[in-house]
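Worked problem 6 (solution included).
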Amino acid sequence: MLSLATRLRALDDATLRAALEARMVAPTGIKDFFDLADALLEPSAVQKTLTHLDRASLSVLATAGELIRSVAAEAARLNALDPAASTPLAPAVPTLTDIAEHLSSVSGVEVTTEHVAAHAAELDSVLLCLLADGQLSPYDAVSAQLATWPAQGLPSTTELATLAAPDALAPASEFDITFTNRLAAERAFASVSSIAELVSELARDPARELSRGGLGLPDTKRLALVMGVEVDSVAVLVAIAARAELIAHSEGYWMETETGEAWLLHPTPERWATLAEAWHADVPRSVRDILPQEPGIVWGSGLQGFVDWMYPAGGEWMAAQVAEFARSAEILGITAQETTSVAGAQLLSGDPEAAQATMTDSLPTEVGAVYLQHDLSIVAPGPLAPSIDARLRSLADVEGRELASSYRITAASVNRALAAGENADTMLAFLGAISLTGIPQPVQYLIEESASRYGRIRVGSLPAGSAPNQSYVRSDDAELLGTIAVDQTLSALGLERHDHQLITRFASDLVFWALSDARYPVAAEDSAHEIVHLRRHQVARVIPPTPVDPAQTLVDKLRASDGSEVMAADAWLARQLDSAIRSKATVMVSISMPGGVVVDYLLEPASVGGGRFRARDRRADIERTLPISSILSITPAP
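Solution. The predicted structure is:
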């Protein structure tokens, strides 16, 4: 612990912060570098870090510890044979070459020094060992924890080096690959369509996030119905959409973002690419490195077996991560029936452009024309181009969302379009341009009639100071205004008659949409009684949270606890002596003698008090009492 504490204090801030982040150190109870060293060498903390190491790194670490124990045992045997030796033999620290040669001998496979060096550097960076001058020395607590592994059912040092990887993941047949690609394209199209419905629905009616997390059951059922999926799939699709920032959590609600609004206008292959790339970017590196990057490879139990072999102590957390991303991969068509599709393999190998091109060839061709029916329905003979679909949604209600979508024009939907700035001419021109059957008379009549009636009812905000009343409803048609006043579907608005208008305490936009949904020819107006166009939904802006870096906070706290250089030096010496006494460790103490001479003593401190400390001189085998003020440095014994 003393040597680790000394090392921690000497690290620069950037290196120390990176190490603390990698070790996931909780700052609670850590006041100085000795507390930090204690926390890092706690068996549970060591085990937690070991579970995140792959087999190759664990082999290097365990082998280094085993070589040190072997050399220490030999040194102890030789010292016992010659107890009168003036300089007892000290255990040697293995070099990287020693470790490579030992692993090669045990495993029967050549292990290069470069291979060992790469893993040793990683182990050193997470403070499990010390790499210096080409030598690797695991901390005692780390080696002790690895020594307990066989009793826990985890691999021993020899098993880490010798247990071969499981058989390669099974490839599918050529027929199966063709089927896989077809099924993957179907799932990709279905997921893109479902998420498009999700984004559109949240634009119309945001879903509330529960305080404990997740959506409430009513919102979940509503979204499942709109998306055409099972209730259990809603959370996964919400997560996929949120990962791509198409929706965001804002003020307690899930809402569409500006990114989502733009995404709805993109062609289906581009939509899929956005979702797939966001999925890939969010896959942890530890998971990404083990996912098969060849098409036609079956994941399934073979992948799980490989995960267990690669991360022998991290099966549970790694399996959970793989399972989470594997489910999303199935939904997005990156895999189909646990088999990598061609587009999925291209994405996993780092070529998203090729993946999008492959998916473009596999997805259904988009159409740009529809059939307008006399019953006011609109039927698309295939998946509509997103730009046409978005425009149709503004003036018609969606009735069916499959390969052939269907819509229906209603008085409320036309009124909604009018409120957004459309007029009869623009709507009829648009429908005429995309219709394969012209514009049936009932459609034209409904649009023109609705446009002529639009604005017979006006909603506006009352002047400031009119609280608690916020808005009004007015109309020249007194009978129509009376109908609104007694309409039970609008009773929640609390409309009250006042002169020639109705007033309510609710905001004008809420009143407007309530009347619009009730199919009244309502328009919003400003203070000058000019018609204004309203946007029904709010857009959530994705604002990155203020980053909180607990690792950097802990670094700052540790540096502040050091105080001034003089105070830090005195406190550091006292803690080093106290730590050495508790652990009965031997340390090298440099003492400034009269005349400026510096003498190094190999001491085992026994007590501290009165500005002096008492210790056993291991070389002279006598007890010494020395002034603390004369100490220049204390370092762990070699």
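Discussion: The first strand starts at residue 129 and ends at 132.
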